[in-house]
């Protein structure tokens, strides 16, 4: 058939645009706050594409250099939400900046834990990994150094900018300054795009707390949930009482700022002995 200009008209074949695979939400923190348990639950939902393994795209140079196509190949198109969890993202301002550049509409879930027990869980994890993997361990620690020595090394760097350098993964104290991380997120993202949960409540009432995540993502709630407990580790030694007290003192002012931001206190968290009177 000819058109008005005399050229033949072929039936226009509509080119199908590839469906987006952009990540729409992330669990950005914090290490040791039940983030793997949350990942297991999220990855079991049919309406979400969620990568159980940590992708470390926005923080690790070798992954980031692989580009967006590599990252998005981990997600399925056609799902209501796509996401992953890498619980170190919230610690690095540069990772948060990259996330914002990637998708300014990204929804961020930040799971927090008593910073005192969080720090010790990280130290315990790192010691066990170092013993298992030796020199190849990404989170390698010097097994001769005590928990307190690591904390004091961190303390000496308080106030310095947090950068994506090789020593940052070993940071234990600073990762518990949660309001620093929240302030940094809120410099780029509106408050409505951030959901803050606490591990203590998440573990105590997983159905309600997971439903908070689903509601944040505009997804229907679950009516039941099988118990999940990922990444449980045994402890060779308990935290020393004096380290606990020292840490509680270091975190007290940071926690106060957090409670003010949240609008509620978290009584489950360790408080310095003098504040318990
Ligand atoms: N359901 C439930 N109940 C109680 N405790 C729980 C649960 N799920 C995870 N956990 C504890 O959370 C810690 C692991 O957190 P993460 O998965 O975020 O760790 S990681 O950052 O991915 O390494 C790890 O804490 P520690 O055992 O103190 O190291 C887990 O035992």
Describe this structure in words.
This protein has one domain: P-loop containing nucleotide triphosphate hydrolases (Rossmann fold). It is globular and about 70 Å long. The protein is built from ten helices and five strands, in the order E-H-E-H-H-E-H-E-H-H-H-E-H-H-H. The protein is α/β, with parallel strands linked by helices and 277 residues long. Helix content is 38%, strand content 9%. The chain has a five-stranded parallel sheet with strand order 2-3-1-4-5, with helices on both faces. The N and C termini lie far apart (91 Å). The protein binds 3'-phosphate-adenosine-5'-phosphate sulfate. 3'-phosphate-adenosine-5'-phosphate sulfate binds next to helix 1 and helix 5.
CATH topology category name: Rossmann fold
User: Order of strands across the widest beta sheet?
Assistant: 2-3-1-4-5
**Percent strand:** 5-15%
Uncertain spans, ≥5 residues at pLDDT below 50? none
CATH A-level architecture? 3-Layer(aba) Sandwich
Largest sheet: 5 strands, parallel
Keywords: Glycoprotein, Transferase
InterPro entries: NST/OST, P-loop_NTPase, Sulfotransferase_dom
Protein name: Sulfotransferase domain-containing protein
Pfam families: Sulfotransfer_1
């Amino acid at each position: 058939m000819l058109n008005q200009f005399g050229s033949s008209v072929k039936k226009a074949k509509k080119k199908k645009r590839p469906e987006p695979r952009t990540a729409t939400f992330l669990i950005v923190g914090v290490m040791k706050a039940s983030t793997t348990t949350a990942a297991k639950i999220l990855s079991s939902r049919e309406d979400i594409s969620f990568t159980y393994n940590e992708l470390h795209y926005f923080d690790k140079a070798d992954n980031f250099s692989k580009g967006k196509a590599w990252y998005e190949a981990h997600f399925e198109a056609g799902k209501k939400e796509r996401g992953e969890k890498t619980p170190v993202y919230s610690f690095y301002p540069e990772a948060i900046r990259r996330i914002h550049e990637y998708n300014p509409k990204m929804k961020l879930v930040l799971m927090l834990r008593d910073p005192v027990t969080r720090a010790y869980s990280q130290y315990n994890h790192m010691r066990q990994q170092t013993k298992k993997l030796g020199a190849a361990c990404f989170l390698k620690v010097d097994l001769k150094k005590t928990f307190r020595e690591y904390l004091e090394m961190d303390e000496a760097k308080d106030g310095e900018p947090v950068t994506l350098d090789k020593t940052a993964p070993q940071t234990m104290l600073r990762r518990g300054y949660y309001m620093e991380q929240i302030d940094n997120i809120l410099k780029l993202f509106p408050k409505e795009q951030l959901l803050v949960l606490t591990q203590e409540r998440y573990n105590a009432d997983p159905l309600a707390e997971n439903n908070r995540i689903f509601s944040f993502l505009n997804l229907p709630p679950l009516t039941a949930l099988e118990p999940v407990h990922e990444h449980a580790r045994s402890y060779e030694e308990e935290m020393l009482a004096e380290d606990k007290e020292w840490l509680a003192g270091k975190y007290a002012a940071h926690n106060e700022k957090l409670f003010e931001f949240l609008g509620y206190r978290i009584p489950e968290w360790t408080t310095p002995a003098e504040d318990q009177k």
